[in-house]
Description:
heterodimer; A: alpha/beta; FAD/NAD(P)-binding domain; D-Amino Acid Oxidase, Chain A, domain 2; 2 domains; 8-stranded mixed β-sheet; globular; B: mainly beta; Ubiquitin-like (UB roll); 7-stranded mixed β-sheet
Amino acid sequence: MKSYKICIIGGGIIGSSIAYHLAKFGEKNVAVFEKSYISSGSTGRCGGGIRQQWSARMNVRLAMRSVKLFERFKEDTGFDIEYKQGGYLLMAYSEDEAARFEKNVKMQKEEGLEVEILSPKMVKERYPYINTERLVLATFGPTDGHANPHLANFGYIFAAKKLGVDVYTHTEVEDIDVVNKKIMGINTTAGYFKCDVVINAAGGWSGEIGKMAGVDIPTTSYRHQIFVTEALESFFPFMAISFDGNFYMRQTKHGQFIMGMGDPDEKPGINRDVSFRFEREMAEKMVKIFPFLENTRIIRHWAGCYNMSPDAQPIIGCSKDVEGFCYAVGFSGHGFMLAPAVGEALAQKLIFGRPKEVEIDFLDIDRLKGKSFEVEGNVV
Amino acid sequence: MERRIKNHPILDFEEKGYVTIYFEGIPIKAKENETIASALIANGFDIFGFTEKGRPRGFFCAIGKCSSCLVVVDGVPNVRACMTKVRDGMKVERQVGRGKPTWTEPE
Lengths: 380, 107
């Protein structure tokens, strides 16, 4: 019977980052189980944005640590992930949102983040290709950016393998063996694996994996759609995003525009179908704000899921009820950008007893047991 | 042999008169209702543009799928020569690499 110290469920960017960081800090007796292929889930379907402009202070800290790690990703893993610090332009279309942005910027500056407030006139001067009609205010964080999520996912998994981690793709975890409230192993389509620790990094399926261990994970998955256009010359270095305008868009290294928006009518569950309604609504909205898109054709359209937590912040830690069951789930649409910091912090917590670079205790599942928690507002 | 598309799997070509379009500034005779690609090939122009690395591109799939025939039409890039019909006075340029963004300011 094969045995590992730690089995990670999920070969997305979160599971891969945790595996890489565990091995990097000395714990190489680790295996990753992925039911499909690497980056087949939410990671490979995401927009690829990397943002530090959050409304909750602890999220700003976590994201700033992530950016530090993205900056040296190539050095650490040997992988070029098309990382570009082209900035993030946050666009507010209401007075309320503008007031929140001003408050957030003050807090973000206290945390040492480089960020500035732009009037619609300043936006138009800098970016004449944006229609600033109805725009109330924008903020710009020059050290935010974006990267290719597939490459980042593969970067971590290959680096982890090189350090001795085993990776099982096309291997589904069917059950978790818990005896006397303690993890004993996992049952998979490739047989039984004995282990001391199971890490739930299953993204959209985090709730189901929780149930296998008898741990209630309060996450729900919702479909989010994205489409991509044909390529134009590179001229749009930043990610443009609006929460009250409900959109985000960036230009890939190749020159294509990737964009998405949320749908309040979306039903919970894993659904990877695409809808013409999304295509039409997204295109109509974006052509108004970014008029150069009018002559640009859509070439592909896909769907992935946000694994939502009740306060739109991730749930990270280890269960107090089942010994050896840990989780990094419920990223609510921003798992890709947080993955480096989260993987590092959780690996350090497991090996050294606590994270060394950034706090993650505030993301423990217990926060959601109380009635009041701070909901992260900066989510599309 | 006339190098001109007479039958197309997905487009109709009704035989009509002639119009003039400009390719790289050169006036050429095109049949009304035919595609830009058909007019260019008929007039001896096989190179519709170049990749960023300078490799020539031209007519390939002929049905709007492959993006090999992209040209700049009246300043707008990424126009499929194989699917876009000619218009009298149309200005067609070779596209080099990816297109530049174009837009009209909303009123």
